[in-house]
Task: inverse folding
């Protein structure tokens, strides 16, 4: 297998099939654009198990993605896509940066859900972009911008329903999209507690990476409990 790319949480390998890649989830966790970094044995396994199951749940509810199948506890196969260099964030409740940026109350309900674009550029600290910025930078056409928003809101609807079944609330999440060989825009990268804020709204207990960002608990225990909740749905 040829290593194509190594990021903060995953390694991407080429396979014998031209349009299929193998993703390996790493036992690493970062926050603050890499300013906080640790190795946690078992973290890659949990991320792969959770992300694979969420991708499958998405497929079962009509959301297309690059996911093919999980092939081991830390690996999955995906279709190759051309990643659009945008992070698409959907906010159902105010939390994180938007609270400080706009002076909102924590967990203030966003009606309708807010969709934001961020430029995937570590050296620029992933700045927020308007639709006009996205078009000006050549990252997406006006039609593609609307398609990205529509896809993100559909994911929000499906994922929110899944969280409700687990008696949790989806605060916000970020996703990435790519274009497949036919030019279709599909969900890519991953969906997991690494990329979402998920809270028990009664206790305000986090089931996401905020426990690591804010040093409020064990990330491995949190992700294990989250995965057990997912398994209970089956």
Result:
């Amino acid at each position: 297998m040829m290593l194509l790319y190594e990021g903060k949480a995953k390694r991407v390998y080429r396979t014998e099939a031209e349009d299929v890649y193998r993703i390996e989830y790493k036992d690493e966790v970062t926050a603050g654009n890499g300013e906080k970094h640790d190795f946690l044995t078992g973290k890659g396994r949990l991320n792969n198990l959770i992300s694979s199951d969420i991708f499958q749940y998405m497929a079962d509810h009509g959301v297309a993605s690059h996911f093919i199948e999980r092939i081991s506890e830390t690996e999955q196969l995906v279709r190759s896509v051309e990643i659009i260099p945008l992070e698409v964030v959907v906010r159902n409740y105010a939390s994180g940066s938007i609270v400080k940026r706009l002076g909102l109350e924590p967990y203030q309900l966003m009606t309708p859900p807010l969709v934001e674009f961020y430029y995937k550029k570590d050296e620029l600290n992933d700045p927020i972009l308007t639709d006009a910025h996205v078009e000006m930078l050549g990252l997406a056409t006006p039609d593609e911008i609307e398609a990205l928003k529509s896809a993100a809101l559909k994911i929000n609807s499906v994922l929110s329903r899944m969280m409700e079944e687990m008696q949790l609330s989806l605060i916000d999440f970020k996703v990435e999209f790519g274009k497949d060989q036919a030019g279709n825009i599909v969900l890519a990268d991953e969906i997991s507690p690494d990329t979402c804020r998920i809270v028990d709204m009664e206790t305000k207990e986090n089931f996401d990476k905020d426990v690591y960002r804010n040093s409020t608990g064990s990330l491995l225990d949190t992700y294990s409990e989250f995965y057990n909740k997912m398994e209970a749905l089956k």
